[in-house]
Amino acid sequence: MSQLEKEINKLLDMDIKSVQYINWFEESGGEVKRITENEWELYEVTQYGIRTDYVDTYEKYNLDELVKEVYSWT
Question: How far is CA 74 from CA 2, 6, 24, in A?
């Protein structure tokens, strides 16, 4: 199983209103919130948690794009 598939499976296993962190390094990376059964919000947390910015809302069919977006930040 690839890293992409592992990350997508983690997101699919999330409870609604829970938070998951992706590609976390030095207190920065992607913060993902599951907002409904089929929607996740992505936030970019800057280094050392100085700022958290909303990026986009993703649906189940494009979770691979969410994960690729987070990994593109490093």
Answer: 18, 18, 10
The alpha helices in 1-74, defined as continuous H runs, are 3-12, 63-71
Cα 54 from chain centroid (whole Å): 11
- The answer to whether the CB of 33 falls within 8 A of the CB of 40 is yes
Q: Tens of pLDDT along 11-61?
A: 999 999 999 999 887 778 899 999 999 999 999 998 877 889 999 999 999
25 in Cβ contact with 70 (< 8 Å): no
As a whole number of angstroms, the distance between CA 66 and CA 55 comes to 10
